[in-house]
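lol ok so funny story. i was supposed to be doing the assay writeup but got distracted and ended up predicting the structure for this chain instead. priorities right. anyway since i did it might as well share w the group, maybe its usefull for someone
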Amino acid sequence: MKNRLFPALFATLSLVMNFSTSAQTTLVNPILTGFYPDPSIVKVGPDYYLVNSTFSYFPGLPIMHSKDLKNWKQIGNVIDHPEQMDFMGERLTRGLFAPGISYNKGTFYVTCTDIDHDGNFVVTAKNPAGPWSNPVKIPQVRGIDPSIYFDESTDKAYIIYNSEAPDRKPLYSGHRTIRMYEFDPVNLKVVGEEKQLVNGGVDLSKKPVWIEGPHILKRNGWYYLYAAEGGTSVNHSEVVLRSKDVWGPYVPFEGNPILTQRELPADRKNAITSAGHAQFVEGPDGKWYSIFLAVRPYEGDYYNTGRETFIAPLTWKDDWPMIEHGEKAISYNYPVNYKEIKQKGALPQSGNFAYTMTFDKALDPALLFMRTHDKDSYSLSKKDGLTLKLKPETIMEMGNPSFIGKRQQHLNSIAETELTFTPKSDKEKAGLVILQDESHFYFLCKAKAQDKDVLQLYQSKPQSKELELLTEVPLNAKAGKVGLRIASQGDTYSFYTSTDAENWSLLKDKVDGKFLSTKVSGGFIGCVYGLYATSSGEATTNLASFQFLKYAGDDPMLRR
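and the output, tada:
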């Protein structure tokens, strides 16, 4: 089989700074494709900075930069060295939940929740690209999703968050509150007493669930408290309340929710669902926009690309905000009347695209390790690319295996690499994995069986730390380098191999993709393509080299 899948996309992109001569551009959803959930945004002068959750992947909390809300470049990560934090022993879907980014008087602040260990914390930086400080714990803030609000009219700061039901006695499952402290942004401590601002949600009598991701905004003398409601799935929404005093009482908008898609037909074409967890921001044109999470299922509530970052215009009427009430579907395209500004060296993040990652210099900041960074486990060179040391750890465990991943950003995608590796025992394996979590993945690898080199495809067995062999083929003894390719087509994955980088053989066609969906696996993360090498519990000095990592995505709803 010739290399004909997305042929035009497989060329390495040439990315240059481009200032559009036209004031008309189009915002393309999602603005960050793939596993970029729980977005938070801040505007500083003409610049926008955005941060997302990363759970137990490392580095944590990517910082994206834009000047037009359309083109985004990753400039760093908040948690980027193990001295700050690691997630050893934690499942991939735990770790860091829902960060919030803010700015005041020359300092950037990121708040976040380390869900199982450190609880809520704050880090600071003068430059959003880093370096960021070590985390400072805020033990009085009990809950999740903290964000800091700076009130310019009083020169005071506040930290607002999701917390427990009153007196820790929930009236029903999902009964939560929104609470707030005054905050000292110099000493990074709470001030005074905690106050409850919202009990349950917009209307307690209707038993609203999971009021979370709160933010405060001041406009025209009103303080707006807005938050997600309904849980981060098909019933997700965004609601708003307002008050003349930052401490309340907050009165809900009669037109709530201000963002949801839950009332639309589930079988609509190219559906965008689960919209919520929003933050408002003023655009380059002086108009308002909302950044929020949503998902693109290929069927029902099945999706593998995780929760993605979307944008939509926000309008104000009678001093109340509205994004999309739920009568209309969120659009994949929104025309705006301002100039588009592309950034030099930025990998594409929206629409359909392709690129090749090479490993002769530093790793791209978007690449992911499991739980921590072990700089001694790999090396980079122009000749060999990325060379991984085989570790005894496997991706089925809670440690730090030899694994470096890149997000699956499209329903229809291809990941491809060229591997140089000589296994010394049947325990040693190296190759390409498509992974949802420790219990849900497919592994295409070179290995050894009965003292001969083979190509194998494994599927994880969720109830045990074992692998099921789906297929195995002998490998020509003369073959040094071997090409490995995984292609996703919504609810299926297909696996290919090559020994000459031109002619591809189908190893296994259309295996079950729903096995890798969030609906089947549970949790909050999305699929990741990974370069992976393991000695499966045994000590070894063996190495595996990956020359490059190619990626291409082509989704019909993203074509323009």
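Confidence is low (pLDDT under 50) at residues 1-21. DSSP finds one helix and 41 strands in the chain.
back to the writeup now i swear
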